[in-house]
Amino acid sequence: MKVKDLIKRKPVVVRRASTLIEAARIMVQENIGLLVVVDEKGETPLGVISERDIIRAFANNLPPNTAVWDVATKNPVTATFEEDVGSAATKIVNKKIRHLVVVDNAGKLAGVLSIRDLVAEKSTLRAIVSSYEYEPLAGGD
To answer: What φ, ψ does residue 138 adopt, rounded to 5°?
Structure first.
């Protein structure tokens, strides 16, 4: 199974100069927890901003009109559209993240893959499990 098989919607994006409050409003309207920060053409992913980033910014007394780019994670972890789901899942686990930015062969934004997307499909779970060697816990059944 390929990453492209799990992409269900167009990615929701924000520009670097957008404010935290604008980003928060978009997240609420779209019912999502992550926005991809893109270049001016809206094609190349430059970073990501999550709801956790926004909460952390507000907890640190940053004003709501702070630019998204000031708190965004730059150079996000990516997967390609044609990448195997098991490989993408491994990146999520190893990097301890909840979302992967999906790009096409030219590096242009193609989607976002969340951990929720991975666990929502039984076939995806089978693909992920089969890509790992199972080792029982010591002393366990």
So the answer is: -60, 130
Task: Give the pLDDT of the chain (141 residues) as one tens digit per residue.
Answer: 899 999 888 999 999 999 999 999 999 999 999 999 999 888 899 999 999 999 999 999 999 999 999 999 999 999 999 999 889 988 988 999 999 999 998 999 999 998 888 877 665 556 556 655 555 555 544
Which residue is listed with tokens 């010591």? 138
In a domain, 9, yes or no: yes
Residue with tokens 């996000």: 76
In a domain, 95, yes or no: yes
Taking the complete model, does pTM exceed 0.70, yes or no? yes
What does the alpha-carbon distance between residue 139 and residue 141 come to, in Å, rounded to a whole number? Answer: 7
* Residue 89 lies in domain: 3-130
Residue 139 counted as domain residue:
no
- Are the C-beta atoms of residues 35 and 12 closer than 8 Å to each other? yes
Residues 77 and 99: their CA atoms lie apart, in Å, by: 8
Total domains, the chain: 1
- Output the six-digit token pair for 21: 């409050």
Backbone φ and ψ for 80, nearest 5 degrees, come out as: -90, 160
